[in-house]
Amino acid sequence: MKLKKLFTPLKLRSALFVTALCAAYCVQAVTVEVQADKPGAKINPAMWGIFFEDINFGADGGLYAEMVKNRGFEFPDPMMGWFKLSPSKARGSLAIRDENPFNAANPHYIHIESEGKDLFGIANEGFRGMGVRKGEAYDFAAEIRNVSGTPGLRVELYSHDGALLDTVKLGNFSGEWKKYNTVLHPNDTDAAAKLYVLVDGKGAVDLDFISLFPENTWKHRPGGLRADMVQALADLHPGFMRFPGGCIVEGSELDKRYQWKKTIGPVEDRKLLINRWNYEFLHRPTPDYFQSFGLGFYEFFQMCEDIGAQPLPILNCGMACQFNSGELCPIDDVDQYIQDALDLIEFANGPTTSEWGAKRAALGHPEPFHLKMIGIGNENWLQPYIDRYTKFHKVLKEKHPEIQLISSAGPSPADDRFKFAWEKLRALHADIIDEHCYDKPDWFLSNTHRYDDYDRNGPKVFMGEYAAQSDKVVSVKNRNTLECAIAEAAYLTGLERNADVVRMASYAPLFANTEAWQWTPNLIWVDSLNVCRTPNYYVQQLFSCNRGDEVLPVTVDAQPSPGANGKLFVSTVRDDAADEVIVKLVNAAGNPLDCDVKLNGASVAANSARAIVLGGADKNSVNSFLHSDAIAPVENTIPASGLIHQTLPANSMTVLRIKVK
Ligand code: AHR
After folding, report:
1. What is the pLDDT, as a whole number, of residue 564?
2. Measured in angstroms, how far is the CA atom of residue 247 from the centroid of ligand 1?
3. Is 467's C-beta closer than 6 angstroms to any atom of ligand 1?
4. Residue 631 to residue 486: CA distance in whole angstroms
5. Please, which of 257, 565, 570, 594 could form a disulfide with 29 given CB 3.0 to 4.6 Å?
6. CA-to-CA distance for 551 and 497, rounded, in angstroms?
7. Given this model, what pLDDT does residue 90 score?
8. Measuring CA to CA, which residue among 219, 165, 227, 209 is closest to residue 191?
9. What tens digit of pLDDT does each residue of 124-179 get?
10. How many Å apart are CA 483 and CA 479, to the nearest integer?
C-alpha cells in the first residue's frame, strides 16, 4: 500500500471537520413555547427557602459571631482552645475551679495567680482562627472576681505571627463576680489572631465567660451574628428558614437532643451541649465542637424576621437519631415533647399575657413571630415515628389547626422507609411531607419528572434537604461543582412545574467553615473573615429571586414535557406585580444550545427583556475564596419582539424576564 493513500485529501478532511463540528454544535434551535395566558398552579410565596443546621461550625465558629472558643471553660477539657502564657520571667499558676461560680449553668471558671514578675495568663485561639479587621472594633467582656492582691489585666490581640495588634488595661476588680468590658481596635487585619488575657501585678483573679465580639455584627446587635454570613442569607431572599437541623435535633441519644427551651434567655444561662457532629464521622473528628446556644431559638426567630423568611422550627418527636442509638422515649412520655411544641407556638405567637408570650416580650419582642409551620421530627422513619407523629398530629390539629405540620419521609427519596412513611402519612392526612435526597447529579437530571404523577389530593411535599454529590454521599471528595449546581437547577424546574404539589424546597447543608467541616458539599463556605458563595448558591438565588406567582404551561419542540428533551430543562412562571413572564432554561449539556422562546397569548411589552445567565465552559469549575465569583450570574438586556432567540451556553442556567402586555 502506498503511504499517501493512508491520508484523506485536505479538502475532504476540512469538509469532514465542518460536518463533525455541525453535528456537535449546529443543532437546530429548539423551540420553547409558553402559554402566557393560561396561568396554572399558584406558587407558594415561601417556596424557596434555606435550611440551617449547626454542622461544619455553622453556629459556634460560624453564624454566632463569638470569637472566643470555650469562653466558659465548660468543655470536657476545660482548657481546650486556651493555652498558658508564661513569658520567661513570669511565674504563676492556673487552676480550673467550680466553687461559688458566677452562674450555676456554667459552673467552671479559671483561677489565675501571678507572682507579678511579668505578665502571666492565658490566650485563646478562637474557632480555628480569630478573624479581625483593621479599622473595626471588638467588644471584650469577662466575668471577673478579685481574689487576692490588686492585680489588673492586660487584654491584647496578637496576629498569627506574633505582632501586637492592640492592648488595653482593665483594673480595680471587685471581690464579687462582676462583668467588665473594654474595646479592642486591631492595627492590622489577621485571619488567625489570638486573644491574650494577662494578669498584670501580684495577686489572683477568677475569670469566666471571656468573650470577644465584633461590633460590626448583623444589625450591630451586641453579641449578635456575623454580618457577612447573614447578608449572604438575606441576599437569597429565602421564603422560609428551617432550623435548627438536621440530625442535631435528634441527638445521638435523647439526652443530647436539641431542646429549644434551654436556648433562650441570658446566654450565660444556656448550658453547653456537645455537638453530635463532634464525633459523628471518624474520618472528620471535631473534638472542639460544642453548642453554646448563643444562637438560640429567639435569635433564630429574629433572624427569620430580619431576612423575611417564615420560621420553620423542627422539634424532636421523642426519637434520637436513627443513624445512632435510635433511642425512643416511652410512648406515654411523648406528651412532654408535645408540650414543648405547644409552648413553642405560644412563645412565637401567643399574647404577651400568656406564659410563653410573656417570655418572648421580656426578650424584647412583644409582637408575635407569626409562626405558621412546625416540623415534627427531622429524618425519622418506620412505625416508631408514625406512632409518635400520630400523637403530635392529634393534639396539634385540635389545639392549633392554623399550624401546618411537616412530617418526615426518612433519609431516602425512594426506599422502603420512604414508601412506608408516605402510605401511613397519607392515611393520617398529613399536611406536608419532608423528602430528603443526596445523590449524584444524574439522579437529579433523571428525576425532573418525579412530581408530575404525584397525587394532587394527598399531602404536599417539602423537599427539605437535597444536594447533588460530585462523588458520593458523605465523601470528603464532594465539591460544589458547576455540574452539581446545574443538575440541581434542572431538578428545581421540575419542582417549580409541580408547584401545586411541591410547596417548599431547601438545599442542605447551608454553611461550612473551611477549617472545621464534617460534611461536603455545602451552599456557603466561610473562613474567619470571608464568605464564598458556591455555584449552587447562585442557583438557589436565581430561583428565589425569580419565583413568580403562577406556573405557566410550556412545551419544548411541541412536547408537553420539558426536560424529556435531551439535556434542556424548562419551567415558566408569571410575576403578577412586574407583569413579566419568567422562563428558566437549564442546559445541562456540555455544548451550547440554540433556543427560540415564543410567548403565546401575550405580547412582549417593551422591545427588550433581561437574560440572567449562570454558567461556565468547564463543568468541574468551583468558586473559591480567591475567585469567589468565578461562577456567578451575569445579567444583560436582550432584544425581544415576537420570538426571543437565545444561545444557552454549555452547563448553564438562563433566566429570561420578559415584560408582557
Ligand atoms: O444535612 C446533613 C444531614 O443529612 C442532616 O443533619 C440530616 O438530616 C441528613 O441526614
Report:
1. 60
2. 6
3. no
4. 11
5. 594
6. 6
7. 77
8. 165
9. 999 999 999 999 999 999 999 999 999 999 999 999 999 999 999 999 999 999 99
10. 10
Instruction: Give the model confidence (pLDDT) of 32-69 as tens digits.
Output: 999 999 999 999 999 999 999 999 999 999 999 999 99
Question: Is any atom of ligand 1 closer than 6 Å to the C-beta of 524?
Answer: no
Atom of ligand 1 nearest to the CA of 245: 6
Indicate which atom in ligand 1 lies nearest the CA of residue 465: 1
Q: Hey, what's the cell of 144? A: 471577673
Alpha carbon separation from 433 to 321, 323, 640 (Å, rounded): 18, 20, 41
Element (H, E) at 635: strand 634-639
Q: Evaluate: CB of 506 within 6 angstroms of ligand 1.
A: no
User: b/e per residue, 31-50, with b = 16+ CB within 10 A?
Assistant: ebbbbbeebbbebbebbbbb
Look at residue 243 in the predicted model and tell me its pLDDT.
98
Beta strands in 105-231 (DSSP E): 109-114, 120-124, 130-132, 138-149, 152-158, 164-170, 178-184, 190-200, 203-214
Whole-number Å distance, alpha carbon 396 to ligand 1 midpoint, is: 26
Closest CA to ligand 1's atom 3: 246
Q: Are 572 and 583 in contact (CB under 8 A)?
A: yes
Cα(128)–Cα(69) distance, rounded to whole angstroms?
A: 9
Q: Is the CB of 523 under 6 A from ligand 1?
A: no
Ligand 1: atom nearest CA of 438 is: 4
Q: From CA 67, how far away is CA 196, in angstroms rounded?
A: 13
C-alpha cell at 524: 456557603
- Joined together, the cell numbers standing for residue 4 give 499517501
Mean per-residue pLDDT, 417-437: 98
Residue 44 contacts by C-beta under 8 Å, 6 or more apart in sequence? Answer: 239, 499, 503, 504
Q: For residue 244, say if its preceding peptide bond is cis, omega within 30 degrees of 0.
A: yes
Q: Which residues are catalytic?
A: 379
pLDDT above 60 (res 4) = no
Exposed, middle or buried: residue 639 (CB in 10 Å: 0-12, 13-18, 19+)? exposed
Q: What is the mean pLDDT of residues 291-296?
A: 98
Cβ burial of 154 (10 Å; 0-12, 13-18, 19+) is middle
Q: Is 246 in the pocket of ligand 1 (CB under 6 A)?
A: yes
Ligand 1 atom nearest the C-alpha of 53 is: 6
Lowest mean pLDDT among 65-69, 374-378, 531-535, 565-569: 565-569
Nearest to 59 by CA among 316, 233, 376, 296: 296
pLDDT in tens, 346-355: 999 999 999 9
Q: Phi first, then psi: what are they for 103, rounded to 5°?
A: -150, 130
Grid coordinates belonging to 454: 404525584
Residue 53 CA to ligand 1 centre (angstroms): 8
Whether residue 379 has its Cβ less than 6 Å from ligand 1:
yes
pLDDT of res. 499: 98
Find the radius of gyration of the CA atoms of the chain. 28
Is-contact 348 311, C-beta < 8 A?
yes
Q: Which amino acid is at 454?
A: Y
Mutate to test the pocket of ligand 1, among 379, 385, 418, 469 (most ligand atoms within 8 A of CB): 379
CB 320 within 8 A of CB 326: yes
For the chain, helix (H) and strand (E) counts, in that order, are 11, 34
**Rounded to the nearest whole angstrom, what is the distance from the C-alpha of residue 246 to the centroid of ligand 1?**
5
183-231 per-position pLDDT tens digit: 999 999 999 999 999 999 999 999 999 999 999 999 999 999 999 999 9
Confidence of residue 579 (pLDDT cuts 50, 70, 90): very high
